[in-house]
């Protein structure tokens, strides 16, 4: 599939949804108001990604390092995830979206963990866009958990391959992201998909996440389509 200007479409887009706090501060609002505003545009971005022909969309919503924030903000973010699931799951299910969770459910309250699991189970057979929510996700933790699995399963040293590790990451079965988008102008990976994004293209916008619109997604995709991916090889 190609963009209107003839470029390739990324099969998997991963987004570091950043800048909610600064968006709120600019408006004299509490940080949580920024987080709430940030979830409002997810529906539009999911629809747009689907329209463009993207098959996998991953959203980074809460990192393993975000536990270091004040507990009121952490609690608020947990509540926002819970509300998001309540509000959007049926709608996503109707759109044939398959939900996935990346990261550890352990650490969330049992109620929230169950809610996430139920949404994942409900939509598990859907065949449309896969929407992966990285919540309590850390790339290093993901690798640690994969290695623990290998050891627990008694996998021998000579059977430890890139494929064996990939198959035990929380993204197992998903293709690597082709394009990683970060909003709010920061230029770092912040422990997001550090294994999977080894050869992803990066696109950064100064726009804060609550202001991110389908047109920004189009800009990212169309720039992606013009890039040359060499994977260590040479130009054609
Ligand atoms: C991203 O927005 C959302 C999370 C990390 C949970 P931030 O809360 O990081 O917003 P800034 O970076 O402080 O503006
Ligand atoms: C990354 O944003 C995590 C999410 C968007 C969920 P942060 O705002 O937590 O990252 P740093 O601390 O600026 O690197
Ligand atoms: Mg931030």
From TrEMBL:
Database matches in Gene3D superfamilies: Decaprenyl diphosphate synthase-like (3.40.1180.10)
Record-linked PROSITE patterns: UPP_SYNTHASE
Keyword entries, A-Z: Magnesium, Metal-binding, Transferase
UniProt-annotated catalytic positions: 18, 66 (proton acceptor)
Protein name: Isoprenyl transferase
Sequence similarity: Belongs to the UPP synthase family.
Positions of Mg(2+) binding: 18, 201
Residue stretches in coiled coil: none
HAMAP family in alphabetical order: ISPT
Organism this protein belongs to: Candidatus Chloroploca asiatica
Keyword Protein biosynthesis applies: no
EC top class named in words: transferase
Cofactor: Mg(2+)
